[in-house]
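anyone seen this seq b4? input:
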Amino acid sequence: MNVWPIRAAFALMILMLMGLVDSAAYAEENILTLDQIVQTAIRKNPGITISQQEVAASRARVTQTTAAYLPQVAANTGYTRLSQWYTDPFTGKDFRRQDDDMNASVSVSQYLYDFGQTDGKVEQSRLSLSASQKGVTQTIADTVRDIKKSYYEVLKRQNLVKVNQESIRIQEEHLNQAKAFYQAGIRPKIDVTKSETEYANSRLNLIRADFAYQSSRLDMEALLGGPPVEGTYKLADVPTSLSAEDLSVETLVQEAGSRRPEIDRIKDQIKAAQALLKASQAGNWPSITANAVGGWENTAYPLQDYWQMGVTVSWPLFTGYNIQGKIAESRAAIDKLEASRRQLELQVLNEVSVAYLGLNASIEAITTSEFAVKQAQENMELADGRYKNGVGNAIEYSDAELALTQAKSNLVQASYLYHQQVAELDHAVGR
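predicted toks r here
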């Protein structure tokens, strides 16, 4: 019996099953890009949801204030029974008197003119809505900046874990080598104990690096409003392509002044406060309203119809300085917002300047770190060769390995700090 077809079919089945397992494993492994993480944050971040609900509340307040322009209609109905003792003036006898009153009416009133009170309140509510909408834009910009920095922080910590894993691998090879030399009588016992100590320290550093990596992932997920996907996921790494900012700080500050949503928001808030001041000042003048009432009323059925209409002029001659207090409060609010605007301009200047300096410093740090890694690698190779040839010692080797690990760590930190500084500068300018 020829068993080769059976074996071939069995092998093919095994390969297919392995392919299915690999495909399933690949499907379960979610690799998320920066854009995907940013979109997830915009969709799920609680802070953005809060800002959006503030916009909804501001829009509702606009509806409330503009309602004053429309007729106000009300329907009323009632029934009253009056029971009281009554003395007849002619006979002097007391008796109980009962009266019924039944009524139904419809009233309509229409605002005509109030010297700007209603107009000011409507304008204030609309400008407040515009300010809250810019607040959403600001919250989104802050969230995008924070999530980008957090994303790069996770990648940085992840690569620092790899650096420490490489350090353990080197230390393990050196430990095995020291043990072999000691057993051969080439090296003293102190080389073994020195290598064991360095190996233990490397494992401790790896534990710390992994804890920092896991913590950074949790920090990012907190900004996202929860894990980005169900199950496990990885973040796609980003290449480090250095690009210095060509524009000057002064030009960047000017750009920030026209792009930052916080500046536009506080301008709208100032205009809204000015509109409220206008409404408060108009409180010293009369308001004119047209009104009409029609209904039915009697002490018994059938009810008798009636109607009345007219114009009401209401002029607050003295309100216990209530209006003056509102005017003073509005002016204080305007002065406070103007001071906040000046403070914000100084803050923007500082943020742009610091981010600009940080970006240039990170570029220089990467260049220096790359050179340091190259030199540390060469020094490590020399120390390794000297140790194997019996010329160097364990201390020299340990110092070289420590310098190489530190140089690699510095390069990783400088590389992702560069990305974080780019995100910081983009946010400071309002891009």
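The first helix runs from residue 4 to 28. The chain has one domain: 28-71+115-287+317-429. kinda curious what u guys think
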